[in-house]
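pls ignore typos typing on phone
pyridoxal-5'-phosphate + seq
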Amino acid sequence: MSSSPDWFTEGAPHVWRPYCQMKTAPAPLAVARTEGARIVLEDGRELVDGIASWWTACHGYNHPHIRQAVTEQLATAPHVMFGGLAHAPAYRLAARLARLLPGDLDHIFFAESGSVAVEIAMKMALQFWINRGVAGRTRFVSFLGGYHGDTLATMTICDPEEGMHGLFAGVMPAQHVVALPRDAESEAALDRLLADKGHEIAGLIVEPRVQGAGGMLLHDDEVLRTLRRVADRRHQLLIFDEIFTGFGRTGDLFACEGSGVVPDIVTLSKALTGGTLPLSAAVASRKVFEAFWSDDAGAALMHGPTYMANPLACAAANASLDLFEAGAWRADVARINAALAEGLAPCRDAPGVVDVRTLGAIGVVEFDAPVAVGALCEQFAELGCWIRPMGKVVYLTPPFVTSDEDLARLTGAIRTALTR
Ligand SMILES: *Cc1c(COP(=O)(O)O)cnc(C)c1O
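k done
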């Protein structure tokens, strides 16, 4: 950047940035404003956002319908506590989510971030068994390639090799992190684990269809059907972490709805508010909820994040759901899929590329080794794009409103960077 704005120069020594060695990482790009699929930098450059700000901004930035809903709510009641008080944005949102989610996933517990929603889902599963008088179910089964958050409990169910949390091995009790049941052999291994250790396991947790932060790894719905079958056979709870896959990203509104596999608990966040405000939810099926429904105060779920169900965030989420209900997203996701498949196909022949794949509005180029994230980000910015690779993958998860022209710019930037 030629001349940094004052706010950047003054704040930079004091802001601790995410996921980077601050001493050696390139400086972050100073953002002036956002609009649609674009991020406008302080130096005047306009970048097409290829990753929708960590998969949140599904309708693009500054969507007028969401802005209007948040503005109206801001004038009415920006925030009230949720203990003992109720408000329309949260109650409307809960009813709508219950209607949209499949099966009897009807009981919505709100929180403010994805990791916390996963923690709550884990706590629900643990207490489900306690409330039913079953002792000793303190562990979880999760899957290699998975990512569920950065807080202490969620770190334990992430892929241990994936790198981000390796330092903390031993801090928390180990979980069973195993291979996804993709074939008869891995299904038998999972079934054996549950037969042997099921008495100490509170639930299985998986990112359905796509393991996102672990490398955009795809699996068939058959894997989800297998998980449901094995969990039922061994009397286990099945949790879907749809924080990435929820809200249209894979081509269905939710992976659980599209796959026809209904979990016992599902977590949502990321695109829940259309990328406008932080909000998350852990949604329980009737069976799970009923284990807490009792005359015994001790059976209650003792949880309540201060900002849970924040009215501004719920208003944004309701407005986002209006846009989903309007329905244009389905055609957009199909259009984006075609553009990503065509635009990224030539990358197959580039050196170091081991796979190119797409699902819904997700396009992935996978390499045989981790890529130089900082250097690539700078190259992409020079090419007018905001694309931030992760481990071995360069991927695109653009807003659904991204134009064909902007999609061509994104895939073109990846093709160009690969030939350099
Ligand atoms: C991003 C993500 C999380 C964590 O959400 P945060 O809001 O970053 O805490 C958990 N699970 C999945 C699948 C995610 O993609």
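The first helix runs from residue 6 to 11. Residues 352 and 368 are 6 Å apart (CA to CA). more later
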